[in-house]
Amino acid sequence: MFQFDLRAGAQRPATPALLSELRAVFDDIELALWFVTPNTWLMGARPALAMLTDPQCVLLAARAERFAAHGA
Questions:
Q1: Cβ distance 14 to 20 under 8 Å?
Q2: Could you say which DSSP state residue 54 is in?
Q3: pLDDT digit string (tens) for 6-58?
Q4: Does pLDDT of 72 surpass 80?
Q5: Is the Cβ–Cβ distance between 4 and 10 less than 8 Å?
Q6: Is 27 exposed, middle or buried (0-12, 13-18, 19+ CB in 10 A)?
Q7: If we measure between CA atoms, which residue out of 6, 70, 63, 69 comes closest to residue 55?
Q8: What local confidence, expressed as pLDDT, does residue 4 receive?
Q9: Is 10 helix (H, G, I), strand (E, B) or coil?
Q10: pTM of the predicted structure, to 2 decimals
Q11: Residue 26: which of 14, 11, 50, 18 has the closest Cα?
Q12: Which residues on neighbouring strands pair with residue 5, listed in sequence order?
């Protein structure tokens, strides 16, 4: 549910970009785990929670993950 703004009844604006970055390197289960696991790029924050306050940092963390996995 973290990817949705329930008050607005819509997907959070950062969600499509995040998924675009991560789908290149993770399958569905790995992707779900990435969002709930403390993340080094986010100083130990879980991406699902960090998305609520700083979606741009989460997007940068997703790009770093993609780069680390693929080198590009």
A1: no
A2: -
A3: 677 777 778 888 889 999 899 999 999 999 999 999 999 999 999 989 999 99
A4: no
A5: yes
A6: exposed
A7: 63
A8: 65
A9: strand
A10: 0.82
A11: 18
A12: 10
